[in-house]
Write a structure and sequence with these properties.
The complex is a heterodimer of chains A (473) and B (149). Chain A has 473 residues and is α+β, with helices and mostly antiparallel strands. Chain A contains 9 helices and 12 strands. In chain A, the strands form 3 sheets. In chain A, strands 2-1-5-4-3 form a 5-stranded antiparallel beta sheet, covered by helices on one side. A 5-stranded mixed beta sheet of chain A has the order 7-9-10-12-11. Chain A has a two-stranded antiparallel ribbon with strand order 6-8. Chain B is an alpha/beta fold and 149 residues long. The model of chain B has no long low-confidence stretch (mean pLDDT 86). The chains are: A alpha+beta (473), B alpha/beta (149).
Chain lengths: 473, 149
């Protein structure tokens, strides 16, 4: 996909150049034209004064000798000066002596002879000066200049300036277009490379450095960064593979060990028992006791191995989450515990429990373990167990409350550890794996499990389950 | 002891590699209600040879019931099961899988290969004896077995 941002980057560059050029050219032209405009009048005045001085000098003789013809001829020479539109000579008394009018020029006859001075009016400059001969004032010369020529010239210059401005901008744009490649190329290269890397996840790609300027600098550090990411990425991949391998090996080990350990155990336990059965009478009391210990040991070992297998299976054989009615699986757990419930006279109740996204088998096991414990660790009163739930932000918080013997908070950190028991086996049986399995199941579902208890006043086990998308109310 | 099958004893083939387990099974069946003759082989290949009456089993009868452990050396118990159940000559014989594993996947695969029932060997001797007697009682007294080929 061609990169949109670069087009506007190039556009920005070109606009910048065009603006800079036009501003430069326009400022210069405008200033020049302004100066020209301001100089029109002084220039005109100076030129006309010069011309008038010349004419005045040449007219002095004709005035002295009262030669109107000569005067007219002198004035007629003004034909050669296109700017002069009219001239008048007045004699000493102010009467018109001679005049000149350029053909085709509309002329409003100026009001009477002023002695000396000039006046700008309507694009015309009127100048009057005295005609003197030594200190004799012979008459007055009035000349009229047309200034249009000056303004025409200025207008022409302005147009030329504008044309030059356009050409200059065009030229500089072309130039810029050529030169901007040097700037845009490294930027485009960076953009392209980073796009390719993020799409293909190939961190071995690098951007080419073109110049040793700031952009080259940027490209170099970009490349360094990518190199570091590549390194870290390959490390991560290695570590993950190693972990996966190790994990798999451990699972296998646990499984095989547990399986293969069972058989010899059974041999030990079974044959000890068989011995006892067939030759039991031949042994005295002490020997029977020894037998009992030996057999008991073997049986316990078998249970431990089974529990270990069960514990490792939580993760290795967990199934993906699905919609499960908590009410249903709690009922199922209660059903599975029917013998223990009947035996202890327990009463197990529950509130209306929600639909959750979980592994059904494991969650049933979780409830069964917790309810089972609640029933098992009862005091003198028949056990009463109640399950309830509370919505806690994005979690369901389940509680299993009992009226049993309670748990000393000192042992809180040992409670969920595998095979840790808080009571001796003669009073409460069990290998101490139930809660470790519960913890693993809860944590596999991303939740937490803990308890609140006081010795002699019952226990409440609590755990959280994230509210799944399907079961959001 | 009652006699079944018109007076002849039941022939049971036990496929079990552990001599300890084999002996226990033997002891348990000895005390059973139905007269039975127990044949024992140590691995799957022997079992197949037994069924096919290949030497050295030329004169052996076709068993009325097979008790099969899944953890066997060389040919795995599952493969033996598959072979028995896919062979038109032997697939009618009820196969009682008697094995240590109680893993879901093992149970599922055994039934998938059409074993007739799956039993996990218990640790406790008394339980084991009880189960063997239950097997015998159910499969040999309650259940009607097909006539031997």
């Amino acid at each position: 996909m061609r990169v949109a941002p670069l087009r506007s980057f190039r556009a920005k560059l070109l606009v910048l150049v065009a603006l800079a050029t036009s501003v430069g050219v326009l400022v210069v032209s405008a200033t020049m034209r302004l100066i020209e405009v301001m100089e029109v009048r002084p220039t005109a005045l100076s030129e006309l004064s010069t011309d008038a001085a010349v004419i005045a000098t040449h007219s002095a003789a004709s005035l002295t000798f009262d030669d109107r013809k000569a005067a007219t001829e002198t004035l007629a020479a003004l034909q050669a000066l296109p700017k002069v539109v009219a001239a008048r000579i007045f004699d000493r008394s102010g009467a018109l002596f001679s005049k000149y009018e350029r053909a085709g020029e509309p002329l409003t006859p100026p009001a009477g002879p002023a002695m000396e001075g000039h006046r700008f009016e309507d694009n015309r400059l009127t100048l009057s000066r005295a005609i003197m001969h030594e200190s004799d004032h012979l008459g007055t010369l009035m000349m009229v200049y047309d200034l249009s020529e000056y303004y025409r010239r200025i207008r022409r210059n302005t147009i030329i300036s504008l044309v030059i401005c356009v050409i200059a901008v065009g030229a500089s744009l072309l130039l810029a277009l050529r030169l901007q490649r040097g700037l845009a190329r490294p930027v485009r290269e960076l953009i392209d490379t980073s796009h390719r890397i993020s799409q293909s996840n190939d961190y071995s790609l690098r951007a080419t450095c073109f110049e040793a300027d700031e952009l080259g600098d940027l490209t170099a550090s970009f490349n360094t960064m990518i190199a570091r990411i590549e390194e870290r990425d390959s490390d991560l991949v290695k570590v993950r593979r190693a972990l996966e391998d190790s994990n798999e090996q451990l699972q296998q080990f646990a499984y095989v060990a547990s399986h293969d350990l069972q058989e010899p155990l059974r041999m030990v336990a079974s044959y000890l028992q068989l011995l006892e059965k067939r030759y039991g009478e031949k042994f005295e009391g002490e020997a029977r006791e020894f037998f009992a210990f030996a057999v008991d040991g073997a049986k316990r070992m078998q249970r431990l191995i089974n529990d270990l297998l069960e514990y490792s299976r939580v993760n290795s054989q967990g199934k993906p989450a699905a919609r499960v009615e908590s009410n249903a699986i709690v009922e199922e757990a209660i059903q599975n515990l029917s013998a223990a419930i009947a035996e202890s006279g327990a009463q197990v109740t529950h509130d209306d429990l929600p639909v959750i996204d979980v592994d059904r088998t494991q969650m049933t096991q979780l409830f069964q373990n917790l309810i089972g414990n609640a029933i098992k660790f009862h005091g003198d009163d028949p056990p009463r167990v109640h399950l309830s739930v509370q919505r806690n932000g994005s979690n369901w918080r389940f509680s299993v409350k009992d009226n049993g013997i309670g748990i000393d908070r000192r042992y809180a950190d040992r409670l969920f550890v595998i095979f840790q028991r808080l009571h001796d086996r003669s009073r409460y049986e069990g290998t101490g794996i139930g809660l470790a399995v519960c913890k693993r199941i809860v944590e596999r579902h991303g939740g937490k499990i803990w308890f609140e208890s006081e010795v002699g006043h019952g226990t409440t086990f609590l755990f959280t389950i994230t509210i799944g998308n399907e079961s959001r109310p | 002891m009652r006699w079944n099958r018109g007076g002849r004893p039941i022939n049971i083939l036990l496929v079990e590699d552990s001599p300890g387990d084999a002996r226990l099974t033997q002891e348990a069946l000895r005390e059973g209600k139905v007269t039975n003759v127990l044949y024992m082989v140590r691995d799957g290949e022997e079992a197949v040879r037994f069924l096919r009456r290949e030497p050295p089993y030329n004169n052996k009868p076709t068993p009325d019931m097979i008790m099969l452990d899944l953890n066997l050396p060389r040919m795995d118990g599952r493969e033996v099961l598959a072979r028995i159940k896919n062979d038109p000559d032997f697939r009618h014989i009820p196969v009682v899988v008697l094995t240590t594993s109680k893993a879901e996947e093992d149970i599922a695969s055994a039934y998938d290969l059409r074993c007739n029932c799956y039993i996990t060997k218990p640790v406790d001797l008394d339980q084991f004896l009880k189960i063997i007697r239950q097997i015998e009682s159910f499969w040999l007294s309650v259940v009607c077995l097909p006539a031997a080929a």
